[in-house]
Amino acid sequence: MLNPLAAAPRRARRLDRAIAIAGGAASFSTLAVFGWIVWDLIRLGLPNLSWHFLTGEVETAGRSGGIGPVLVSTLLILLCCLAVAVPLGIGCAVWLSEFVRRGSRASRIVTGGVDLLASVPSIVFGLFGMTFFCQVLGLGFSILSGGLTLACMILPILVRTTLLALEGLPADLRPGAAALGLTRTTTLRQVLLPTALPGILVAITLGVGRALSETAALLFTSGYSTRWPDSLGESGRALSVHIYDLAMNIPNGSPNASASALVLLVLILLINLTATGLTERWTRHLSGTTS
Amino acid sequence: MSQLSVSRLSVRYGPVKALRDVSLEIPKGQITALVGPSGCGKSTLLHTLNRLTDLVDGCEVRGSVRLDDDLEITEATTDVLALRRHIGMVFQKPNPFPHSIRRNFEIPLREHGVSRANIPGIIERCLRDVGLWDEVSTRLDRSALQLSGGQQQRLCIARALALDPEVILFDEPCSALDPLASAVVEDHIAALRGRVTVVIVTHNLAQARRIADRLAVFWVRDGAGTIVETGPAANLFTDPTDPDAARYLSGERG
User: Fold this and answer.
1) Choosing a second label site near A231 at 20 to 30 A (CA), which of A170, A205, B63, B133?
2) Which CATH code of 3.40.50.2020, 1.10.3720.10, 3.50.50.60, 1.10.8.640 fits the domain covering A52-287?
3) Would B238 be classed as within a structural domain?
4) How large is the ipTM?
5) Residues A182, B98: C-beta atoms closer than 8 Å
6) In this structure, is the dihedral angle defined by the CA atoms of residues B76, B78, B82 and B86, taken in order, positive or negative?
7) Which run of H or of E encompasses B23?
8) What is the domain-level CATH number for residue B173?
9) What pLDDT, in 10s, does the model give residues A122-158?
10) Does residue B125 belong to the interface with chain A, where contact is any CB pair within 8 Å?
């Protein structure tokens, strides 16, 4: 009689191997796409990159000169955005996770609103920002308007990721803190937030990435001006807008578009690395391996 | 004299009755063990004693729990933060804060207004109490999570002791530990007799027999947990009257 156990494992093993190979192929394709983008940017952009390019004025609509004022405007827009979005986002997540019952009406309404906000296309945020911040609040085309519009846009990702970090904390921390007679404020400030900090840094990093790569929401809010910004009330061109303009509207703009894109990529990479480094240091600090 | 008097206590979680009509005297300075099969309300009673039931949505407590014949614990106006300073708790899974050993003491001590100058002395005294001082005195600033499970649980006992409680509640404190660590932790709980009132939930009858002065046997009756027998541990193990309790304590059932 045939041994019924003999045939199956071979088939199963073959399937295992096939799945491993397919998975590996998928991973390498993903990497290849990223590699191709980076290679293309380096090939086209690196020749134009120089210290002068990073610090110089924008000349002939970007075809020559540098991106100094654009970089400064980008960072100012980002700072405005984070200054508003980070406290709001963390506050909202803390409220949802620690102060309202999960599944309660208040919690459902707020999370529903946040998720809805996440699904709004960025061009709609741009139109909203133009109407509300630029016109109704009278901020005009300005770095402030752009930053505030971006803040609205990255709020959902901040709230959701911070919420995930808080809800992922060990379940017995809260009763443990309560049993020691700690107030909710102390529990939050001394126990929960420090423990969730790596997750919160991830939230901020994701938000920064989203904000830096945004074009549509900034087109109608922070505007196109390539002058050095004197204040937050002035129009200032973000790097992504600059790339868009060079690539789409300026004849022979694409070499400098590539160079600017390379700068943007490196900027995002640097911010990611900084966040990872901070997270590792904090984790080591909590687990006590440094002392 | 009773440190805690529970009388006619009923607890429900929404539609689920967890405890019905439980009365229990917990004498000062002694070790009272709550035993019985899972799901018959032992932990619920424990959580009622320090109002940790407040953290559970839809939890409804009726009846009376009095501390020192004086403070009505179940009263809504009771200051739970102060209450929990008097009645500490150690959980099933060791749950030190993921900070340094020192911070684990500083956070609760500062919260309860102990001045910084007094904290090092308290840390040393409490860590000595649980036999941990010699093991960790040189690494107080390392993470508590680097300690072994048994050490973490002793740290949690020390942290509870730091607030000078009159009562400490233990919710199956040894069930997540290996037998050797469990024995060490058990010895330190037994050593609290006379200084602190101990209420301990345990599934380990041998442990209850070794350390308990008094025993309360829980059982599910008519769909809710209740106490079917209570008394001095020695009497109960040799001569129980309730048939369920008798079979449970002799190891035949449960």
Assistant:
1) A205
2) 1.10.3720.10
3) yes
4) 0.91
5) no
6) negative
7) strand B16-27
8) 3.40.50.300
9) 999 999 999 999 999 999 999 999 999 999 999 999 9
10) no
